[in-house]
Structure formats: C-alpha cells, structure tokens
Design goal:
Blueprint lengths: L12 H10 L6 H8 L2 H8 L14 E2 L4 E2 L3 H8 L2 H11 L5 H7 L11 H17 L1
Antiparallel strand pairs: 1-2
Subcellular location: Cytoplasm; Nucleus
Main location: cytoplasm
Protein name: C2H2-type domain-containing protein
C-alpha cells in the first residue's frame, strides 16, 4: 500500500509571503491626510489629464482611498461602499506625529524628571507672581 494522498505540510505559506512582498503598495493614511487632502492637491488629483497607463484614463479617482476606477459608475458605487466609509472614518482621526511615536517608544519627555533649568525657571515665575500680589 502506498501513500493515499499528498502531504500538505507547508500550507502554501511560501506563496502567500511571496505574494505579499510583490503586491502593489497603497498610500498610507498619514500621506493622504497631509498631502492629498490639501485643497490644491485634491483639485489637481480630481482633474487629472488623460493618462493611457492608468485605469479609466485617470479620470475617475478617489482621493481618500488613493484608487483609480474604470468608470464613473464604479466610482459612485465605491463612494457608497463600506470600504470607502471606513477609510473616511479612519481619515477623521489625526495623523500620528513623530513626537507621538517617540512618546509611545518611551523616548519622550513625559515621564522624565525635569532638568534643573526648568525647576529654576518655574521657581522664578512663582516668585514673580507672589511679588506682583
């Protein structure tokens, strides 16, 4: 008796990983918030010249999702979809800043002791308030 079926030990992990490496990247939320949603840039993106290399000749573009669509009907149905509405909800939250990322990594000033110059400056300002009264 031989083997009845082929062993599937790797579960196609290699192929999934390879596909994720070569998949086209889309713009991140902070790039869209800071660059594309600026009124000047938004107007330029919505009124692009004809481009034969892009889907729909670059005439049907969703700025919030950074995607091109083939027809106006496809773009309108995308605007009504859950995917677009979720992206709008995500874009309403403020973008992460470098300072916020540093605080999350523990590099910020929040939990550290104040330096001597800030302590002296605070004491001087308190003395000025007392002297003014």
């Amino acid at each position: 008796m031989g083997r009845l079926r082929r062993s599937r030990a790797h579960h196609a992990r290699r192929d999934v990983h390879r596909a994720s490496r070569t998949r086209a990247r889309v713009k991140d939320l902070d790039q869209i918030q800071l660059i594309d949603l600026d009124p000047k840039n938004r107007a330029a993106l919505e009124a692009q010249p004809l481009d034969y290399e892009k889907p729909g000749l670059a005439q049907h573009y969703c700025v919030e999702c950074a995607k091109y669509y083939e027809t106006d009907h496809a773009l309108n149905s995308h605007w009504r979809s859950k995917v677009h509405k979720r992206r709008l909800k995500d874009l309403k939250q403020p973008a992460y800043t470098i300072e916020e990322a540093e605080r999350a990594a523990g590099l910020g000033r929040e939990g550290k002791r104040p330096t001597t110059t800030t302590v002296v400056a605070a004491a001087v300002s308190e003395m000025e308030v007392i002297a003014d009264t």
